[in-house]
């Protein structure tokens, strides 16, 4: 039995129809088996040592859990260059927001983070483009905030999961860096959706004082 067959046999034994039905309502595609994320992380750690890079690269996921599993295997690769090669191909295949948000490869050399961010930013694929914003949240030092704000202001992609990620990231920047990005909100340069969703996400946070939330409410675009 090949690697894919072995993993599918294990995943089949871990699946839950109840979890699959619930998760499929949140994630439309691909098909979900119903295996919990901690189990997928454990499975990746238990099997990583016996796999070589060629086997990981050749693994073609079909089910949602297989995409998650492949991402977790790539994240375990220690060599920066090898990990980058695998990651740069994997992000092109990500099928939904959950796989995108769960993929967070770490590198010892910043140039690989920079290259992955640049690739994602220039992508025409919805989830690879979303990856830019999600990955930047985990690597705030990779770009100056001024450059990031310009990227957001110039963003023309109106696809839902891209705009949601941009708003999420802008909200995190605002909260983490003491109101950074307020001038961008005041400028009205963001798309209406991203603008209002950013404010909404900031206001949802318990880390933001009420007076700040109230002031931001006045900036919402009607």
TrEMBL record:
This is DNA alkylation repair enzyme. It comes from Campylobacter showae RM3277. InterPro entries: ARM-type_fold (IPR016024), DNA_alkylation (IPR014825).
């Amino acid at each position: 039995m090949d690697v894919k067959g072995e993993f599918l046999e294990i995943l089949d034994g871990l699946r839950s129809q109840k979890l699959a039905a619930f998760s499929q309502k949140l994630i439309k595609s691909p098909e979900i088996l119903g295996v919990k994320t901690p189990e997928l992380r454990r499975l990746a750690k238990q099997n990583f040592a016996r796999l070589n890079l060629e086997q990981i690269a050749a693994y073609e996921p079909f089910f949602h859990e297989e995409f998650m599993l492949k991402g977790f295997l790539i994240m375990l690769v220690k060599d920066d260059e090898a990990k980058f090669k695998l990651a740069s191909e994997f992000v092109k295949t990500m099928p939904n927001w959950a796989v995108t948000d769960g993929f967070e490869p770490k590198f010892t050399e910043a140039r690989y983070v920079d290259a992955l961010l640049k690739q994602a930013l220039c992508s025409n694929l919805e989830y690879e483009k979303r990856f830019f914003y999600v990955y930047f949240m985990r690597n705030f030092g990779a770009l100056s905030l001024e450059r990031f704000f310009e990227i957001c202001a110039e963003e023309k992609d109106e696809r839902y999961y891209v705009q949601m990620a941009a708003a999420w990231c802008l909200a995190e920047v605002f909260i983490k860096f003491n109101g950074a990005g307020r001038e961008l909100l005041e400028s009205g340069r963001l798309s209406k959706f991203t603008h209002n969703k950013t404010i909404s996400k900031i206001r949802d946070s318990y880390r933001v004082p009420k007076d700040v939330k109230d002031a931001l409410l006045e900036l919402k675009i009607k």
